[in-house]
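User: Second chain of the day. Same drill as before.
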Amino acid sequence: MTLPTRFVKMAGGGNDFLLFEADGRRLTEGDRRRIALLCRRGLSVGADGALFLSGGAESRIHLDYFNADGGLASFCANGTRCAARYAVQRRLVAGNSPVLETGWAVISAEVADGEVMLKLPPFAPPSEPVAILGEGLPPTAIPIEVGVPHLVVFVTEDLEELPIKGLAPPLRRHPALPDGANVNFVKVTGPHSIAVRTYERGVEGETLACGSGVVASAIVAARQELVSPPVVCTTRSGVAFTVSFVERGGSIVEASLTGDAREIFEAELNEEALT
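Assistant: Same format as last time:
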């Protein structure tokens, strides 16, 4: 398969994506390298990743997500929210409640103007803490998987001044997490609110937001009895997300993520975008 030239640039709360109407299951290794070239900021279009929408079973939308390095990922919450908004806007589905097949699970969404809510499937609660090192960091961090692995680190210092560029890479490759993890640095700001900065694997840098990261952070914070749901999560972009959930029968259930999703522009690629 060769990448289509037409695409739409979308953003969800600070995460930006290139969206193609094409079957991501048919991408070649060459196509994945081209995705990485397109996602370079300053030299090409620039994005945190690429979304590929195609027809799924039972009138669902099939969604494949590739990180900025061209690697296939099982799930991206903000990308899924953008895909849901696109599917409704472009009438790829009937109504405002698309169902999307992701690499993690089949996920339903509710689209209302520029806001999209994802309804997540049940998943396991946080794991036991793991030891970490880093100046100004606590002695432990808490792993949790929300479609992809996350590590949640609570800080008491000024979150804005935290030197994430230096602190995050060793944690992203923590030896207790063989597949690596997104690293979320979290500060509690109220009984129902937190602030989150996230360093994402596959991007290998801090992003302005991470949807599954704020879900992970809110759940771990509630588990530590630092907040109670619903939890308002402010991200580096300044955009806030709302996370709701309950814990029942040893699982996190009825989890949802609500936030903005917007279409920025549509365009056509030329050859210089890939050089």
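The helical segments are 29-38, 77-89, 164-172, 211-223.

User: Great, on to the next one.
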